[in-house]
Structure formats: structure tokens, C-alpha cells
Amino acid sequence: MKKNNLLIVVSGPAGSGKGTVLKELLAMSDDFAISVSATTRQPRPGEVDGVNYFYITREEFEENIKNDTLIEYTQYCGNYYGTINSKVSEMLESKNVILEIEVEGAMNVKRKFPDALLILLLPPDYKTLESRLRGRGTETDEVIKARLEQSKNELACFEEYDYVVINENEGARDAALDILNITKSEIKRTSRRLEVKEKFYE
Amino acid sequence: MKKNNLLIVVSGPAGSGKGTVLKELLAMSDDFAISVSATTRQPRPGEVDGVNYFYITREEFEENIKNDTLIEYTQYCGNYYGTINSKVSEMLESKNVILEIEVEGAMNVKRKFPDALLILLLPPDYKTLESRLRGRGTETDEVIKARLEQSKNELACFEEYDYVVINENEGARDAALDILNITKSEIKRTSRRLEVKEKFYE
């Protein structure tokens, strides 16, 4: 079933609970792996190369850009972040690979890999999103407002995603199950199973 | 969730085990109902109006054709068979409605209702299909050959279906579960959940 493994993009605004949901998903199934990004940023204490990120030099990163060997990349605070094609291909040999990236990256992946599965994770509504962000108690009012504003930008691409999964309060396990079921269904799409047709014409 | 109920077309060649799989599906979930067709054929002993078919006159049927109130229809052995729009709409208020129809009807449904979900049920391969048909022991060689030939015609429309579900030997329950999961996933498609987006712009 190797060739039926999927490239899955999971996006969601801050407060959607992406991290928790994906953790639940990995705990409930061995069929998924989360892609590790490459970055030019220095590793922070405790971070491990190949686990948190692949730490590469600016020259190496720009070589990847030049050779078009990145699935997507972006710059943030003067550093590059991106997903290296070959790393994902390797993982796809044995697992469904999840890219946890924001909307812009997601749209780039979709352009390059029309077969990728795009899932948008959302809290049940705007009020919940707001209260989750405030509940953290770690961000200033200004940051919260900026994040809420950004979440609206993300919703502007709603229809570009294939599926929307709602992460209800205390619902991370259900949301993870939804992603699991969506993946199981998707591999039954005729467009992903053309070999079945061939079997009948052998 | 009423408005999220789906119109589901299930097609499959003779020998695919459609009947058994759909029976399993109805047994495992209350969320599905099978559409009852209308026909101009006389009821056979034991058949019940509204259960096996809606028995209507030729005039009534042709009135339906004229008024474009049929989802699909066909003629067979001098009688009309078809699906009345309003009957399906009524059922959709409370359930996902399954149309168990052949390929041509399925394509007509797709044209009229692009939101309909099209599932093709298949045995694992051609040999299994053949041995299932022969195993029945009720059809002549000629009929079996004709059915096998017809199954190839059905496969010609493979890509027009959304999903392919394989009914393995002794696998009717698994195939029913597949249809159940596909339906659960489909209602999470962004194209079917545009109201979610609205919630965030209220």
C-alpha cells in the first residue's frame, strides 16, 4: 500500500489545538508521521537535529531554493524555514506524512502536489478561538488581536482546503479520529485507485 | 445536521455483493435509507407498494418525465423504472439516501446533482467476479458472459465515481463500514460545510 500513502497538510489558526490533535493522532495510529522542517535558524538548547528541525546553512537552503527541491518555504525573523522534498518522499515510503504549515505554505503545496490532502482544523467558533487565545494568559492583548485578525485571513482560504475538522473543547481525540477516518476514506477515492480498474482489464 | 445528509449512489456489477453490503450498512447505522424506485411494472406476489417499488401508471410516469420530476429513469422489458425527486427529498430530511442504480443512471444523477456521492462497489478482481457469478449456479453460461461483459462497461466509468469500495470475499461488513466512514468524512468536506466559514465572520 506504499504508493497510497498521503501527503497531508494540516493548518489551523493559533488556538485551533493543532499540536494536541496531531499528538493524539500519532498516539492512535502508526500510519502517520509529522514532517520535520529544515531551517537556517540556530538550534536552541535541547533541540535535536532531525527531530525539531534539520539545521542547515543559509547556503544549503538557498541551494535548495535554486534547485527547486523544497515543497514550500518561508522566511521569518531573518531565517529560512521550509520542507525538503526528498525528506518527505522518504517518509512517504512507509507513512502518511503530515505537514503542519500555515495557509500560504498550504496553498503552495497544493499547487505543487494536487494530490495532497488539505485539512483545516478549527475551533467550533470565533468566540471559542478568542477565549482559547486569552486563556493561555501568555500573550499581550495586541498579540491576541493580531492572531485573531490572522485567523480571518486563514479562513479566507477555507474552500481551498479539502476538509474542515472542528476541534471542540476537550475534543482533541475526536478531531484526531476525524483525520484518521478522512485519510482512510481518501485512499478509496477512485482518482487514487486507478490500479483497481486495471485489475479488471488484465 | 439535516442539510448535511447525502444523496449516495451505489453501483456495482452483478457479483459485487451490493445487496448484502447495503443490508449490513442499514443494520449498523440508522443514518441511511435506501431509495424506493417507482415503476410501471405490475407488483409481483408478495411485493408491497412503497416498500419494493412505488407502483404507478404509465400515464403518471410519463407525466413525471414531462415535468422533469425524476432524478433518473430507464426502460426495461417494456416498463419504466425511475426515482422520483420528491420521495428522495423527503427521505433526505432525516437520512442519507442511497440509490442503488447502474452506471448510466449514476451518471445522470451526477449531472443533475453534482453534490451526490458516487460509490462503486467491486469484487477484488475479475476472477472473483467470474467465480461469484458462476457460483450462483442459477444463470446460463450465456447470461454469465453477458454480465461479465457488462461489468467491463461499468468499469469504463470508474473515474466518474468518487470512491471505489472493494467487497472482499466474506467482507460485506468491512465494505459497509467503508461506506459508513466515507460518508462521515464527506460531510467534513469544506464544500459541504460553507456555514462553518460564516460562523467566523458573524
Oligomer: homodimer
Greatest interface and its participating residue counts: A-B, 36 and 36 residues
Query: What is the mean predicted local confidence, pLDDT of chain A?
Result: 91
Using only CA atoms, what is the Rg of chain A?
Answer: 18 Å
Uncertain spans of chain A, ≥5 residues at pLDDT below 50?
none
Instruction: Figure out the total of helices of chain A.
Output: 8
What is the level-2 CATH architecture name of the largest domain in chain A?
Answer: 3-Layer(aba) Sandwich
Strand content of chain A: 15-25%
CATH class of the largest domain in chain A: Alpha Beta
Compose a concise summary of this entry.
Chain A has 202 residues and is an alpha/beta fold. Chain A contains eight helices and nine strands. In chain A, a hairpin with a 2-residue loop joins strand 5 and strand 6 (79-84).
